Amino acid sequence: MAVPEIEVRKLRNVNLKGGIVVDGFPSVGLANAIASECLIHSLKTEFVAAIESPAFPSLSIIKNSMPNFPARVYASEELKLAMFVSELNLDPAMYRPVANMMIEWALESNCDLIISAAGIPYEEGEQASEPPKVFAVASTPHALKKAAEAGIPPVINGSVSGIPAILINEGAWRNYDVIVLLVKVVRDMPDFRAGAAVAQALAKLAPGASCDVPALLKEAEAMEKTLKKIRSDQTVAAPKEEIYG
After folding, report:
1. CA 113-119-121 angle, 5° bins
2. 201 is in which domain, residue-wise?
């Protein structure tokens, strides 16, 4: 099976030597995607590259009346920080090519670290913690030490899936620093509280990075109210089942 081609269309050159790359491709609960978007909106970043592939869904994201590629790279040369963001719901067959593309881009940009995040859904009936706790797994002892120095406890046993899993495995194979942040997330919906927790952990690992957490949590509250109303309306509208004896 041919590996799908992924093209990185560079818009401008930025010096990111020694910097950090953040994986914002959506994972379970969208915590990493939410955290990346929050960092982009809270920091002074530039749109530096578009990501395109024939294997991507045909999609254009309209913002402020203008079209945008559904996978993009933003960067802050001052903070030596780059963020991949995407609205794509990727086919699992694309996980490995996308992860490898990010690693190659990070290496070519002379970045020292990739940070990703993965959501672990709460079990049925499990009480959501406030705020959600964030844990770390890492590809190298050096990366694990970085996470520990930032106050993020390690995962002793467990598993990681999707793009974060490929990033951490490839990082271990290449002896390249990758940190994956793990956080519990609510099932089947964007978890803004988990996203805020990941953003705060990212800020500890990336000097100078910050996220407007109060605004993010306000957005979470509004989202929850909307979802509750939708569910309530659906319950009212649903026909009652009749039981015949």
Report:
1. 165
2. 7-212
